[in-house]
């Protein structure tokens, strides 16, 4: 989370970046949220950070050489970690254009390093995609301004990951923390509540009727 601004001041005339191996040191929700905060900064700096990949990726549950890993397996079971679901949400909801200042968090007791958001547009599917992350212990309100996008659908889909910071997926309980999908009513400008220990991905179509 302390590396959230790492590439903001990167010299744009220098070589582009491939972040070839990154991970928070653990498989709890708190670790996955730290990674989500970091990945919003990679999206913000997509003109410089052209590629990124999580690592280590796979490990046999009964014979690990290191921790953490993204996916654990045995001869009969596969256990996706909470980190995996965050990676899945981000990879399935990429865009081709980044928009600054579409999300502004209410000022309060939560440190800025624990809050992150991004707004991207997928021109192919005509979708505005918002990612909102709160890795702190207090609920925070976020002001959303989508007035630049013209006609928007009044209904959005939202995928949410949330829980307690120490929550993990295990072979016995592989879905302790996994995405929950819902619908959300939206307008050009609205307030969105981001509870503690929470990441969500909101998809809104533009230029289309409901």
TrEMBL record:
One of its GO terms (molecular function) is alpha-L-arabinofuranosidase activity. SUPFAM superfamilies: (Trans)glycosidases, Glycosyl hydrolase domain. Residues 20-198 form the Alpha-L-arabinofuranosidase C-terminal domain. GO terms for biological process: L-arabinose metabolic process. It comes from the Bacteria. InterPro entries: Alpha-L-AF_C, GH, Glyco_hydro_b, Glycosyl_Hydrolase_51. This is Alpha-L-arabinofuranosidase. It comes from Mucilaginibacter yixingensis.
